[in-house]
Amino acid sequence: MTSLLVIIVLVLLAVALWQLTKIFDLTQVGASSDDSQVASDNDNNVQGYIMFGFLAFIYIFTIYGLLKWGNLALHTPASEHGSLVDNLMNITWVLIFIVQVITQGLLYWFSFKNRGNKDRKALFFADSNKLEAIWSIIPSVVLACLILYGLYAWNNIMFVDKDEDVIEIELYAQQFKWTARYAGQDNVLGKANVRLIEGVNTLGVDMSDPNAQDDIVVSELHIPKGKKVHFKMRSQDVLHSAYFPHFRAQMNCVPGMVTEFAFVPTYTTAEYRELPFMVEKVANINKLRAERSAELVAKGGTALDPYTFDYLLLCNKICGASHYNMQMKVVVDTPEDYKKWLSEKTTLAQDIKAAAAAEKPAEGAAPTTDTAAKVIDTVKTVVDTVKAAVAKVAMK
Ligand SMILES: [Cu+2]
Description:
Elements lengths: L1 H26 L13 H29 L12 H32 L15 H30 L8 E8 L2 E6 L33 E3 L2 E4 L4 E7 L4 E5 L4 E5 L5 E5 L5 H6 L1 H23 L12 E5 L11 E7 L1 H9 L4 H12 L6 H30 L1
Parallel strand pairs: 1-5, 4-10
Antiparallel strand pairs: 1-2, 2-3, 5-8, 6-7, 6-9, 9-10
Helix pairs in contact: 2-3, 3-4
The structure holds copper (II) ion (CU).
Subcellular location: Membrane
Organism: Flavobacterium anhuiense
Keywords: Electron transport, Membrane, Oxidoreductase, Respiratory chain, Translocase, Transmembrane, Transmembrane helix, Transport
């Protein structure tokens, strides 16, 4: 609401300024001034220097942005292939930076050098093969190199050897949460289908499949350091995107198909927390939080909890109203801790059994919900009929 008011005030101010300049123009009527619509040499000079001013603004803002916000970018990658992605990204940035600095400079310099002048006539030529060759060949070669390097990186990252010893984990996306399913002892995920979703079996795992018997469903992802983890993604409803920023991994989750991504984590959560850049970052966040907490407490609110770093799995597709909150904590353990953590989890088969056992005594309660649903349906039908009748009368 406040921002709307601010926008309205700004618009009104702009209108007022515009009207003021019109009044100012009217007061100048009759005064000796050049009011011709053709630009004079003086006009051209002024425009030329203003353009240089804008060029300086672009350069200064770029440098300022790099100095002020450059440290906010993701730092050390936490996966084996991460440095490959970062390399590709950095090369692209450097290229863009160099090209932008040179082309913007040339653009403004030539506009200034060839600005309007009464004594100069523009030279007309239909085309220049040499020029066109230069501006076509150079970008093509540079882009081809970038794309080839990108393809090389992509193939390297996406290749999973069939015989390789990997950990199979399913990531299940739905509005608005993630669930993970571990393949268990056999390291084979059981079949699944959204049509089989029922009760605690929220992922629709086909429990008649022998491979599904030891599958484990959890809401916090644990993975071991130094071991390749092969993720298979599914989505229940709309497009989601599994995004692990620290591991430089992202893959769309598409309803009706299984997508995949594999990576090897290289730092445990504890190790990553100890990296100097992370210690500094967390200290900085907590400094800001402490200031904010002091403000909140002064207003009678509660203080914020101090921040500790955790890897996250985020959703990177705007998938609905609570998309911003669609995340899952990811913990990278040492292989021993990972084994211990997984061994303490119950399998989905056990969960289903336990749920069935817990439900039995409460069986009498089930019909009530059925009755309630039936009553609601009847009321809906009555309302629809009345609506139709009213509409008919209105038509007449
Ligand atoms: Cu999502």
